[in-house]
Amino acid sequence: MTRTKESPDVAFLPRELFWMILGYLEPNEIVRCRRVSRTWNEAFSNPAILLPLLKKHFPWTKEVKSLGSETLSEEQDHGRRLFDEVASRYNHLERGKPRSIRKYRLCDDFGSAGDREWYQVQPWEAHASHMRRFVDRQFSEALWTFENGLLVYPSADHQFLVLMDLETDRQFMVPFIIHGKVVRRVRLQKSLLVVEWAEPKAFHWLNDSDGVHRHFASSFDVTRNGNQGWNIVPRNEWKIMFLGHPLSERDRFFSSHSNTHYPNRSLYTADEDAPIESLFVWDISKTSSYRPSLDPTGRLRDDSPDDSPSIVARFGFRDLEFFDIRQRGCPSIQRLEITDDSQAIEVTENVCIRPEDQPPEPFGFPQPITTSIPLIGNGPHWRRDFEGILPPYRGNCSMQAESMRHDGFIMADPWFGVIAQVTVLEPDLGFCLHFDPWTWIQDQIVYLTIQTPRSSVTCDNWDFVGRGRLAGSEKYLVGENCNRELVIYRFDR
What we know:
Layout: H1 15-22, H2 27-33, H3 38-43, H4 47-57, H5 62-65, H6 76-95, E1 100-105, E2 145-147, E3 150-155, E4 160-165, E5 170-173, E6 182-189, E7 192-198, E8 204-205, E9 211-212, E10 215-224, E11 230-239, E12 252-255, E13 261-267, E14 278-283, E15 310-315, H7 317-322, E16 333-338, E17 344-353, E18 365-374, E19 382-385, E20 418-424, E21 429-435, E22 446-452, E23 455-460, E24 471-472, E25 476-480, E26 485-490
Antiparallel strand pairs: 1-26, 2-3, 3-4, 4-5, 6-7, 7-10, 8-9, 10-11, 12-13, 13-14, 14-15, 16-17, 17-18, 18-19, 20-21, 21-22, 22-23, 24-25, 25-26
């Protein structure tokens, strides 16, 4: 039915007046206006209106940047769907309410046969990033990992490692046999998946009670195939420690990797006041069929190709002492990286210090320092201030923590209250998991702050307190609860 020009309906107002009214409406209110009548539904679904508003309210989103100079005025369904998706996503972000919550059960520490299959490298009880040196709250290391929309986790339903593409929700099996192994750490980085694991039985005994278990690392290339799926192809395997490590709460190690190298930092393998420390770096760039876990005597290595993983740099405790990065009784290391050109190892230490000539503060302020040491040769090392602020150490997941912003836009609380955070720099959006800065010593309630370019909301959270780790993007947020469940907040669907 057609309306006369004298109709009082807002949809038939002159264009200039209609645009003035739209200027007072939020994107979610525009969507609600469609419920009034068929005429309103048609007027507020017009892409000639929606797409300019989309560019005005959400210029930072990928959807808007992909539009270019086109208006798509004739593609009404596409324009309306695009506006609705972005408006709905940011409406849920601004309210701090996910559109949907998905939970996935994670494997138990012990398998069906009663053997231990998952045992994270244990956290330290003391760290220099805390003023009193004692870690106020410890979180066990997460055995799931995330990079660029890909999530790898130990599925209890399938009893193996699963790779999930969070854009499509498709799942793929990681060709790694868990049975007969004790997984210590899982890390996806630089499109390379590395699983660190140990043998369940001690290879040799130090005394009547302490046994040493051989530790290995298996790597897998993760590449996209032509069917919008992912290929997970084994690359190589290497023994990460000469003698091995006991499976205990006292012996710890930390590692990192690029697509070509794997540095491993061994800590606390002896007396806690004077631990035996070392730093080894492997070249893992080439594919190799040699599996040292199947060759305890090493006899088969002579017949193996020269491209198997090999150690390219060794740093003993005297070398680490010379570079001034030996940890001793109170560790301060919080980041271990290898440069993009694979020429240097970078160790970042985080120390909480008291300001001089000022009244003592209960938490001081952080002083992260990065030391770069050459990987090959005897060149000088480079010691400099770290650009950014690292949250205090509260578990091994903190060793991969993001740097916090200096201007406080994402870091809504003082640095010492932050547990973990995710920053999406392009839209200036962030998620921060933190304690209440004033009451958390007595009452350690965990809060989640979601900050967008248009809003900031804080609410208490129990879904991400299991491991103190966050990962994700503006469309989803991933964490772990205390019920051994992987929790995914979806803001897009």
